Amino acid sequence: MQLFHRAMAISAIAVSCSAFSVAAAESTLSLSEAVRATLQHNPQLVGYSFKANALAGEKQTAALGPELRVNTDLENVAGSGAFSGTKASELTISLSSAIELGGQRDARIDLVTARQQQLASSQRVITLDVVTAVTQQFIRLLVAQEELTLQEESHQLLQQTLTSLTRQVQAGGTAESELLRGNAALTRATLALRQASQRVRTERIKLSAFWADTSPDFTAVKADLYGVPSPTSLPVLLEKLSNNPDLAFLSAEIDVRSAEVRRAQSERRPALEWSAGVRRLQESDDSAVVVGLSMPLGSGGRARGAIATATANQQQAEWYKDATRIQLEAQLIAAYETHQLAVDEVMVLRDQILPSLKKAMRSTANAFDRGRYSYLELNLAQSQLLEVQQALVEAAARMQETRIELERMIGSSLNEQNVEVNP
What we know:
single chain, four-stranded antiparallel sheet
């Protein structure tokens, strides 16, 4: 459940928190619903239960002590002279095992435990990767919907313009050539509208594929593409980089390598092997207790190679984590600057440029209806407005995409304290 809550918090990375409420219409999908469906049904996340079960079995095996062995020896049989037949035979039945003196059992258990923790870190990484991917696809579908809306508005506006042009040409106030241009523009807008509609259908299927559904039952997604996130300083983000899930996985890798070193070191002390049993002397019809101890020589020297290998692997894991952190810091700084630039662009386009162009468009359209402006002037105003509207959509998409990237790096939402998670 902690992993689920964390993943749901990361799902807030695309848009403002207020946009995540479930829409009233059943055909509208929210981001939280898309994330929940992905966590429940995404094929990439299914295999971890099998891996966890496998490691649980390994840990059970590692906790076992040395096995007991039953030994049987039959001596002085089928020889010559006094040892012919079984008259002088000696039968020994004994038990034997080993006493681990170097903490080998604890070292084995620690190694499997470290691998279990590594698996948990790996699961968190892949889960956040999948959540990030589904959020990115959610944004792509949201952008496609916005572009479709723009094309629909543009198409409707061109239809109105063509109606006005037809009336002016019939009245003799406008050349027929402008009507031909209007017809051509409307035809192009129709094609653009069809392409935008097709892209929405394609992006919708790509989104539902995250939860193994190629026949989505929703028609649209709901979120605020233009919601500007609360400002967060770069030093704060760099401080939160310690929560990066990839660094956590590399820390778990270091723990595994350290456990391998301890296990290799435990092999320096040899296991003491013992045996105890009863020997039957056939010739004298007597029995005797047999006890034995043995210890391999040179175990310390034999373990040096394994210790050197494990130590080198540990040092390499530590070096790789340090190098990865430096790379992540550089990536975070670059993503932060790109994000801030996109935020500024959205605010300028949305609050300054777009209102002016909308006002200019209304003024030009009114003048065109009165015959004061030509179709070319009206078309120029329409094109400028559509261009800025599309630029705003693209800037908003970059703003949300870079926010996704930043929050994937720090492993949490930029506004995590404001995120409401409803599992």
